[in-house]
Amino acid sequence: MERTISRPSIRSHRSHSLRHLSDIQDYVPQEPVEPTISTGVGMIARSQDRIDNHEERKDIAGVDNMDPKSHYVFRFLREEKPLPSKRMMGVMLAVLFLVMFLAGWNDASQGPLLPSLQTYYSVSLFLSTIWLANFAGFMTSGITNVFISDAFGFGIAGPFGAAMQGLAYILICWGSPFPLFVIAYIFNGFGLGLQDAQVNSLVTRLENSSTKMFLMHAMYGFGATVSPFVSTAFVQHIPNHVYYYFAVSLGLALVTVLALVVVFRGRTDNQVVGKRQLEVKVNKDGSTTENEPASKENEGSGDKMKQILKTPVVHYMAFYMLIYVGIEVTIGGWATSFLIDERGGNDNSGYVSSGYFGGLTVGRVVLIPVTKRIGNHMSIYLYSLITLVLTIIIWFIHSIVGNAICFSLVGVFLGPMYPIVMNVVVEILPGELQGGTIGWIASLGQAGSAIMPFMVGAISERYGVWILQPFTLAFTVADILLWFLVTRSWRKHVKSIDKHSSNPVTSDEKKDGEGRDQSSSSVNQMISDLNRNGNGENAKNQS
């Protein structure tokens, strides 16, 4: 068999040569070129245009539109995509609101359902068991959130959290055996904690994030307001099968998963809002440096978690949130029992939970201008003091109507505190740590929602439900003391930023300036040499 050797045609050689000739024709003088400044600048400009065109061709080919150092697992997560349109951003925000609605729906339904569920399972340690299972799920999400976010981003982590919550409802809604019921609450806590961390982290990066944070958490309150009406109806009409209520929750969870998948389509935080911008970072010694978070987001997840856990202000805010969310959920879960046992109320007392969570919703909307006017930190102190006064009134005024009104007002002034803390995280911490910190704080807050109602339940079994008010009073005072530590750290941060603004030229910038001066002097020397040589050539030509 003869071997055929393929040779390129003469035409292909010619076209290839012509293409290369066109690439270099700007640099081959067709006639003598006078070495003037304008000639050199023109050559440089044409070469830069060719470099830019080459880069554009590479981008079109898909070579340079990907971060080679990205920590994401899948290739499509590392690609740079066009940011969503303004209309699509509105749809995405609505889906985030739906996630928080489901969280509120879940938290507020437990109070009316627990007595019937305890009767159904006939387990003496029913309350303590499910609270501890929830706590285990929340803590697991807090520890793993940074690793999941760095590996998969919001577009996968968010739907995964909602799916875990849906799995919990699947295990519960058919009246499963008690051990399986407890395992389901572990999945429920993990899913809620992961979603809470992902959603809060993303909203802090949106435009006008402060207002959107308040409105999003108002949707949590709205879900918590609606839920007791539905769960109370199940208790009244089918008390022996109240677990059917979780079939409704399952439907909401599936809708949430579908909405997250369809709307976000696996996008990461950066693919939704863009990369983080340059910011000023405050060092441990009080000095400041300019920091580019986008360049540090690819650091190892373990290193980020170590930095988060080594930062004192993170722990101040985390324990503040643990107590705050614990108080919030404890009041919503035990207010009904308090009115029935201590004030002689009836089954209609269950609607007090709806009034309380309704106040939570109203406070997160109505108090937005007040919070912006007096500032985040002063708002925390003011709202906490008003909560203390209302708690004392509930404790000593033995009136069902008066207590119900005061519970609603407590919800109004407790409401804004959660979004305020999330906004303060963005003020204090560098960008590459904000997502992990918000996840840790949110998860620890959810852990508080599990462990503190359990504490009240354990104490009330021996001493009575009246301990709800002194319990709320003591832990609100503890929260105020913790926030004092947060304020002190924030003031140090602000002073360092102001000092950086008043002395904008750092040592690195000074070196850069010296380098620019040296470069400019070298350029001036080169230009003078060019002019001198050009004048010499002109003199020769004239002679």
Automatic annotation (TrEMBL):
InterPro entries: MFS (IPR011701), MFS_dom (IPR020846), MFS_trans_sf (IPR036259), MFS_Transporter (IPR051788). Residues 293-303, 497-517 have a biased composition (Basic and acidic residues). It is a multi-pass membrane protein. It is found in: Endomembrane system. One of its GO terms (cellular component) is endomembrane system. Keywords: Membrane, Transmembrane, Transmembrane helix, Transport. Belongs to the major facilitator superfamily. This is Major facilitator superfamily (MFS) profile domain-containing protein. It comes from Kwoniella mangroviensis CBS 10435.
